[in-house]
Amino acid sequence: CHEGRVFSGIQPTGIPHLGNYLGALESWVAIQDDYSSVLYSIVDLHSITQPQNSELLRNNIVDMAASLLACGIDPTRSILFQQSLMKSMQKNEGSVGLYTYPVLQAADILLYKSTYVPVGEDQIQHLELAQDLARIFNNKYGELFPEPCALLSSTRKVKSLRDPASKMSKSDPQTLATIFLTDTPDDIVFKIRRAVTDFTSEVTFDPVGRPGVANLVSIHAAVTGQAVEDVVRLANGLDTGKYKTVVAEAVVQRLEPIRQEIQRLKADKCHLEKVLAEGAEKARSLAAPVMQEVRKRVGF
Ligand code: ADP
Ligand code: NA
């Protein structure tokens, strides 16, 4: 187990999709085995700068908490909490103008003296802000914050099933483009059957020339934990139509236990609230001495 502390956050924007799972959440789960101190935050504060339906936000937080637990985030091994619950326990609230995503993310990373931050390549700039702030603070007020470094997830981006030139995303208006963790086996089969391929029937891996088929191959490899070459070799002799059935089956096998667990957890909101409340309490106890030290050095 590595020393140091891992921190990452995810916005409560509804049920995660297959791209979120393979690109981020799956590695969040694995990180619990490798690091002794791990914090995962449902980052809901940025959304107070935008008009928000509070019931919808509440629902989205429940969905995200249930999804993270169902994916394998274990509250006995990592601190799972809701950012606003933790921050509202602190006396000095920042001004609403500070509640922008990159600033809050940097503040959160430092607040827990995090040393590792799992990020996708698209989020490295956000981490640079936290690194700069740590350096600036340490120079001015004496060494306090470790400079956090990135844990880069190496997974290839999952592409939209309908437009393999763009990434799979929750905000894709095409309803068949995105597989959500709560999709039923029928939903998954239906969506994968309608995934865009091309006019060649054999299965190959050529992300540039055949992005639709390559996307299916890399999804297949990712959900089964196999290498891309092995998946292609095993698909030898199948046409893309038959291959879609194989891929759909593999995705269903991987996601169905997660879907059922999300259902089960969502039926017990009290339990979810309790997990989040306990998480906030643990996060607070880590942050409080850091904040105290910051106040002492800065003099407020
Ligand atoms: P979205 O793009 O659907 O809005 P987010 O921006 O909330 O998703 O991303 C949450 C996490 O999931 C990030 O770590 C991001 O890198 C990862 N992620 C999002 N979409 C994909 C994808 N299509 N493939 C792989 N990882 C993804
Ligand atoms: Na995004």
UniProtKB/TrEMBL annotation:
Alphabetically ordered keywords of this record: Aminoacyl-tRNA synthetase, ATP-binding, Ligase, Nucleotide-binding, Protein biosynthesis
Transmembrane segments: none
Enzyme class: ligase
Record Pfam families: tRNA-synt_1b (PF00579)
Source domain of life: Eukaryota
GO biological process, one term: mitochondrial tryptophanyl-tRNA aminoacylation
Gene Ontology terms: cellular component: mitochondrial matrix
Family statement: Belongs to the class-I aminoacyl-tRNA synthetase family.
Protein name: tryptophan--tRNA ligase
Organism: Bagarius yarrelli (Goonch)
